Amino acid sequence: MKNKFFYSEATLSDFENAIDQYGWVIYEDAVDDDMIQKIVDDLEPAYLLRREIQVQNGIETNMEGTLHHLLEKDNFSLPFLSKMYCDKEMRHFLDGNYIVNGISGVLNFKNLKAYVHHIHRDIRSFTGDFKIAIQMIVLLDDYTLDNGATYFLSGSHKKDVKPYDIFFYEQADRAVAKKGSIILFDSNIWHAVGVNTTDEPRRALTMTFTRPFFKPQFDFPRFLGYEFGTNLNDHLRQVIGYNARISANLQEFYQPPHLRMYQPGQG
């Protein structure tokens, strides 16, 4: 398959051709070891906190190994987003500015079967040629056939019909790649996490980026605090969603253009 590139050497044309034909792209050697280790170190306490809440609220079934909404002030998330990985590719795909819609982690334990193992796509409505969302997976461990490398049904991002299980697993390709790789894929593509048959967990960071007008899964600016956003650079303010907020009262709505919650250039 011609959808795997070295991150430092890949061109926008490489991305455009591969994402159109296959619906997914692998960039090898994209994230350095120090950043990978920082993410891994932060995932363990983050998972314990989220798992406790899942159990408390009675939704732990099929949620094991999943942790959501990792954008926080003091963890890896802000340094990671500051690196602007695949920025030009995502801007091209989404035709301009984008925001982070969700930032999560997956800990694929031995023989685990969570909701991410089902055949699915990451957007409920098929949007065809109008691209609303793109997904990013950051490999925190090597992806192998034995530890559950993700299945992608190449080309299925162009079809609205969910494939039958037998067809999917016979025809799907596997995202075998090294730790530190990044996978970008069209949110319309049908995919599924593979089963890990090894004794070690296979870890990954998963993110969704969308056009700014698309409702995010979590109100990150409100969670971090509106004042916190004043100290961020232009890129972080944009991608976290500070430029695409919703007014909550008339005082917030009636503001001069430079102070408005929803800024120009957001679609």
In short:
This protein is of the alpha+beta class.
Primary descriptors:
single chain; 267 residues; alpha+beta; seven-stranded mixed β-sheet; three-stranded antiparallel β-sheet; 8 helices
Give the assembly state of these chains. Answer: single chain
What is the alpha-carbon Rg in Å?
19 Å
Strand content: 15-25%
* Count, helices: 8
In round numbers, the mean pLDDT is 94
Which structural class best describes the helix and strand composition? alpha+beta
Helix and strand sequence: EHEHEHHEEEHEEEEHHH
Q: What is the share of helical residues?
A: 25-40%
3D shape: globular
Strand order of the largest sheet: 1-2-8-5-10-4-3
The N- to C-terminal Cα distance equals 34 Å
Number of strands: 10
Structure explained in plain terms:
- With 267 residues, this protein is α+β, with helices and mostly antiparallel strands.
- The longest helix has 24 residues, at 33-56.
- Helices cover 27% and strands 18% of the residues.
- The two termini are 34 Å apart.
Secondary structure layout:
Layout (H helix, E strand, L loop, with lengths): L3 E3 L5 H10 L2 E5 L4 H24 L9 E2 L9 H6 L4 H8 L4 E10 L24 E7 L11 E2 L12 H7 L1 E2 L7 E5 L4 E2 L9 E9 L9 H5 L9 H7 L9 H4 L14
Parallel strand pairs: 1-2
Antiparallel strand pairs: 2-8, 3-4, 4-10, 5-8, 5-10, 6-7, 6-9
